[in-house]
Amino acid sequence: MALSLHVNGQAHPVSADPDTPLLYVLRNELGLKGPKFGCGLGECGACTVLVEGSPVRSCVLPVASFAERVVTTLEGLGDADNPHPLQQAFIDEQAAQCAYCIPGMIMSAQALLSRVPEPSEAQIRQALMANLCGCGTHVRILRAVQRAARAMAGERRV
Amino acid sequence: MSGFSRRRFLQGCSAALVVGFSLVRPVSSLAAQALGADAPDKPIDGEQLDAWLVVRDDGHVVVYSGKVELGTGIETALRQIVAEELGVAFAATSLVQGDTQLTPNQGVTAGSKTIQVGGRQLRRAAATAREALRLRAAEVLGVPGDALQLHDGRASVRERPEQAVTYAELIGGRSFDQPVDRSAPLLEPASYRLVGTSVPRVDIPPKLFGEFSFVQDIRLPGMLHGRVIRPPITGVSALEVKIESIDDSALPEGVQVVRRGAFLGVVAENEWAAIQAARSLKVQWSHDVALPEMERLYDYLEALPARTSRIVDRGELHPQFEAAAQVLEARYEWPYQNHDSIGPSCAVADVRDDEITVWSGTQGPHQLRQVLAALAERPKEAIRVIYAEASGCYGHNGADDVAGDALLMSQAVGRPVRVQWSREDEHGWNPKGPAMRMRLRGALNDAGEVRGWHFRNWTPTHSTRPGPDGGDRALLAGMLIHGMPEFSRHVGGDRNAPIDYRFEHCRVEVNWLKVADTPLRPSALRGLGAVQNCFANESFFDELAHAAGRDPLQMRLQYLDDPRARAVLEAAAERADWQAARRGEQRWREGTASGRGVAYARYENENAYVAVIADVEVSERGVKVTRVTVGHDCGLIINPDGVRNQVEGNVVQAISRTLKEQVVFGREGVTSLEWGAYPLITFAEVPEVDIILIDRPGEPSVGAGEAASAPIPAAIGNAIFDATGLRLRQAPFTRQRLLAVRDA
Amino acid sequence: MAISRPGRLSTGLASLVVLAASTLCAAAAQQEGDESLARGEYLARAGNCLSCHTREGGAPFAGGVPFETPFGMLYSTNITPDRDTGLGQWSDEDFVRALHEGVGRQGEHLYPAFPYTAYTKMSRDDVLAIKRYLDGIEPVAYQPPENRLRFPFNQRATLAVWKLVNFEAGRFQPDPQASDEVNRGAYLSDAVSHCGECHTPRTLTQGLDAQQHYAGATQQGWTAWNITSHARGIGDWSQEKLVRYLATGHLRGEAVAGGPMAEVTSDSLSWLSDADIRAIASYLKQLPAREGTVPARSEIEPASPDPDDPAHGLFVAACESCHYPDDRGLGGPYPSSFPNYSAVRDPAGTNLIRVMLDGLVRGGRADPAFMPAYRDLLTDEQIAELATYIGQRFGGHGTIFSADDVAALRD
Ligand code: FES
Ligand code: FES
């Protein structure tokens, strides 16, 4: 029986074997490029998506588990015309080198900001703990998340 | 000069590249888009101006670069250089990179040479084009060339700006048909408006919206997914292995097995099926290899037959050591290290009867094309390699190898195949930054002056890239089919082996080892030997300073004449508030001790100058770097924020390499096959980074991609010594090593 | 040398592909039909000679595995038939004496890290079958490091005294009251697989405490659980569950073998016949119940998460991203049912911390489990914070772990 996935505000019928990790379905059936394959072991965070607000490793969890869930990928946050404050902040801080890890970073950061709107630096470091970056962009990533938090706080106050 | 000719290569309109990408558009469709055509006969000979840039009908300038974007921001920086020199708006440029059909061969993108060399080539081309346009405009406007000003895509008469002609009118859609003029005058740096400013990187936004296609994201119609199955002797140098038998009884239906020699892959319609198939295939391999025990690695390396090359031999060493008041000796060791690419290597190949197209994250598309031709047994003209960005590579990772894998699989199944390496493939099989041992001996006189300096190291070449030797055996697939090549190159192991200090009596010897003798397959990793050699040199300098009772910063300044070298040290020292008296006060027993260390290097002894001051905290739990201050001079800065980004990356990655990273191997090869066993720095460990960039508009730009990596390890080691009195001479400086040195 | 490829990952993770120790197969293949040889191989499996006699990166059975014991640092011996460094010159009698009496070839007393206290119960035929098998494997010249023993244990004579108190030689005696199956299970568990070496607590003199047979103990930095029929042991596991666990080391959502038990299941138990596994389970199920220190699942009440707990953020990033422990869970191989796991309920937290440090690789006969080793990806402070949080939220205990607790389990 075909599964139905709810991703970025839309329902998608998918035909994959229910044991397939979500990541492959997002990338190959739905054509999304935000979630990245990095390790397939839950170690690096490149594949992170949000499930009802929580950061989840899509490379290890079977697609069948998501049938009843609301999944958000990088694409679901915003686009060039309407960037999410995190995306804007990463641009403003030029917080990327190769950028391969960045989608996962942004998703983990979004999970944090929705839980803790004005996090301390220590909280940001903690929330990104399990996201690896090989390029050493950490310093900028921290700054970008702080900037986004400020921007979002500003929005709320307006 | 005659008018420009209608560009032949703009006419052939093949939409092949654009059609067929249902989900994503590969990078090089940018080329097609830019040109409005596939331009099969555009010249790529770097002697020809048309190889480098094209002015379209609408005045937009397409720049062709054989150097590629590896996540360092060069797409932006190179456009800045061309836009500045040619006199067009930044936004009126775009860049096509790394396509064997469209871009000149500028060698591999490596060694921090993109701006230094590639930028210079483009600047020359842009200057040639500008002068050609000036001549043409002078003719059209009827004024002498030097009465014209050229900017924003127009040539106008300086006195009467309304009298003007646009570049599009002058040449739009036509070719220059002339060689690059090496003597074309270049703009004065003082007049720069664009170069030297932090233009935001053009590649970042699409990557943040999931719009950008990395090589991992390329999907072709009819494309299948391939996975490789590797022999158990993981990542070894002397790869001799045979497949005895394959049991494919557990394979799901529809999966094809591709085998050539000991190269083995599976191809399936769907990626997950391919992964499962690779796991369920049971293979009996035979091989004959037993690597040395890892604990004996460095003795093993030193005992190998070597070709010694004495690269510095100054003064009379022997009498100086005889007469010395103190002689110090030490040996330093650096382990095998991985490329930390977060995305494992990936490639897509489409092998057809008449042509082969390969999308790859290679650093050298033209070099790769050559070896792929050998692998495919087809003329190189039949192959087109198109660069598609991959995850950061920091040198020769699996990007070339996986292109070979994809090509073989596509050739076998007659459909386009995408091969994605697993994490295990990458950690196990990407070429490693080689392990090295360095031995140092130094002589001090009574006055605490350095009278003798003797450096030796043991290293294989740091490049086994596709290139001059090895043919297709420079690719993993080639090795598995034909066996190991001999690599005759000697690259990188000597990098920064010599020191800049003005020692009268000095000898530097590099002992080159044969690749096949060393346990793991080596190749270029950020900085090549500079990281290892600087670690030894700059740590040992500190040991001498300590023995001489001197402040290590002052002693460095004493032996450095070059004002630019002194300037980076002084800048860092001032910013970090270096206190000579601090040193040696703290001695760690228990609890936490803090310390600071300094190190300096001029990359390759002739490029960027870097001074680093590292602050550390040392406790029973290990070493934590709390702050790093960098003084950095890479000549004329094209894009300050871009340079800063690179330096930050170097610092953080080099800390990771210094404190944590080490490839672990057993008798049959690499056993550290994922991030748990080969850990990377995490957010908990990232220090504050403070960078002082010294801009030198009058000096040529040199690379900033790796220079700052080199002095980091020694700065940290020196800081640990400052905090604890313990000298760590073997990287990585893990907690176990720290405690072992303490308890020794 | 023909090697069948185990998909290798350092942590053995690609034992997602069935692990086949080459030498075993090769040796077995050469002399097919030799029943005692096959039995020897089978018993060597059941006795798990491989795990203790194969060091990381070393040849199978060549020894050199370090054991931190109360006696000092011991290294397992080379039991390949190499003449100089292995068993090449051992006679059958030498070998039988070692297993039955704990006496080496030179007449020296052996340290009980070598479980002759169990092997003494094996039949002479079975011991010799193992010898036959070991004689046929590839000889490897390797001399393990010298033992480093503490006084007074560096005096082999001390061992004689130890043995007097703690060791009784003698073959297994079947219990006439029990079924054949239970007796078979008892023989396998007590004599061959030496389960008690880890699962039975020790007395002051480091002997096995017969009164507390299989009641759980901590060895080498891992806790071996109470496996008696008490509710705090495996009392509420069905026979079927127990069989599945022993054969695979994994019960989805309930239990997973880690540390030494993971080795035992993948190197040993997963190779045994279904009948033998059932026999072991039957034996365990009928053992007298002994009280344990880890509350049963039914005794504890998980707490609801406290989002203000500073460790919560860490938990979300490092754990929840795969385990996703809300009331519905996400299923798949990553359990969200934390309270089911003894490691989580154990107020001592030993295995919980160890599993975070060392990760988990289970690739037995089926149903692989994998968890990354966070040893170098999290700091001691972070692991302590997580262990405390997990214990409080899911384990029904309030132990506060410190970075020092973690550091103590690190090496
Ligand atoms: S790809 Fe999922 S955690 Fe690495
Ligand atoms: S920016 Fe390249 S991995 Fe993070």
UniProtKB/TrEMBL annotation, chain A:
Keyword field contains Metal-binding: yes
Superkingdom of the source species:
Bacteria
What SUPFAM superfamilies is this protein classified in?
Answer: 2Fe-2S ferredoxin-like (SSF54292), CO dehydrogenase ISP C-domain like (SSF47741)
Write down the Pfam families for this protein, in alphabetical order. Fer2, Fer2_2
Residue intervals of the 2Fe-2S ferredoxin-type domain: 1-77
- Keywords assigned by UniProt, alphabetized: 2Fe-2S, Iron, Iron-sulfur, Metal-binding, Oxidoreductase
Q: Which PANTHER family match?
A: BLR6046 PROTEIN (PTHR44379:SF6), OXIDOREDUCTASE WITH IRON-SULFUR SUBUNIT (PTHR44379)
Official protein name in the record: (2Fe-2S)-binding protein
Lineage here is: Bacteria, Pseudomonadati, Pseudomonadota, Gammaproteobacteria, Pseudomonadales
UniProtKB/TrEMBL annotation, chain B:
Domain Aldehyde oxidase/xanthine dehydrogenase a/b hammerhead: residue ranges: 209-292
Q: Which SUPFAM superfamilies match?
A: Molybdenum cofactor-binding domain (SSF56003)
- Print the keywords alphabetically: Signal
Q: Which domain of life is it from?
A: Bacteria
Q: Which positions make up the signal peptide?
A: 1-31
Q: What InterPro entries has UniProt attached to this entry?
A: Ald_Oxase/Xan_DH_a/b, AldOxase/xan_DH_MoCoBD1, AldOxase/xan_DH_MoCoBD2, AldOxase/xan_DH_Mopterin-bd_sf, N-heterocyclic_Hydroxylase, OxRdtase_Mopterin-bd_su_IorB, TAT_signal
Official protein name in the record? Molybdopterin-dependent oxidoreductase
Organism of this sequence: Stutzerimonas azotifigens
Q: What is the lineage of its organism?
A: Bacteria, Pseudomonadati, Pseudomonadota, Gammaproteobacteria, Pseudomonadales
UniProtKB/TrEMBL annotation, chain C:
Residues covered by the Cytochrome c domain: 35-138, 180-288, 306-394
Q: Where in the cell is it found?
A: Cell membrane
Q: Which InterPro entries match?
A: Cyt_c-like_dom, Cyt_c-like_dom_sf, Cytochrome_c-type_DH, Membr-bd_ADH_cyt_c
Annotated protein name in UniProt: Cytochrome c
Q: Does the keyword Metal-binding apply?
A: yes
Q: Could you tell me the keywords of this UniProt record?
A: Cell membrane, Heme, Iron, Membrane, Metal-binding, Repeat, Signal
UniProt signal peptide: 1-20
For whether the record's keyword set contains Calcium, the answer is no
- One family name in Pfam for this protein: Cytochrome_CBB3
